[in-house]
Fold:
Amino acid sequence: MTPEAPAAPPTFTGVISTREVRVITADFEGRIMELNLNSGQRVRAGDSIGRLDDSDLKLQLERAKASEKAFRGEVGAAGARASALARQAKSQAILARAGAAPLAAVRNANAEAASAGASTSAASGHLGEAQVGRKQIEEMLKKADLKAPIDGVITMVSAKKGAIPQKGTILARVYDTRDLTVRFLVPHDLRATIQLGGRVKLAVEGVNHDIFASVQRISDEVEPPINSVIVEADIDDTKLVPDEVRVNANTTITLADARPTTTTTTTTTSSATTAGVLR
Structure:
């Protein structure tokens, strides 16, 4: 009887990523007036890549400055009144000790001085709130100019010129391609085939040589409904030329040190499902 031929080791589907990924967000709601942003575009940290309409914020800033000025005037007036009443209360106390003023007058003067002091404190609190509000608007205005947060490559652009994104909307992502990684799904029943520090081999479309990576992290959580765990491996960048491997490119992964088995094992997770979970 002919012995059963050994089967190929299991293969997995993954997505190329990077160690550091940062997002570009809209820090306030405003129309996108300028946009110099394209998927695959290489940027440097601090590069201007767009601008949000800040006209509403500028109006808010003018109102905030006016409020701050008014509250500063209230603080000055309240402080002057409190000082005058405090001096008056002191004078009444001196007169009362000399028998020249009734104690009731002293009590009334002290009460008025205390009330004026409370009014001054309240006005100071309002002034402080107005100053904080004004500073927050000024900080927002600085963020009207959209800038690249790190050196890297732009991907997953969702912004369009003329659109009005809500505050916090992610407009694009920047991947630092100096340190590439790969993320892939491993079915739970094959979890034991993956070990920390183990090597995996990548096959990427358009790259005509093997790429190796070392497993750095294995998620212990099973991702429903695909019943798989997420594995992250660090790619050996020293064997790659710049931009040879694209971020978010799909890749097929095999175990570099795997030994043939007598049972064929393949994964059935679709590339679309894999990409949706890993990106």
In short: The helical segments are 55-97, 103-142, 271-278.
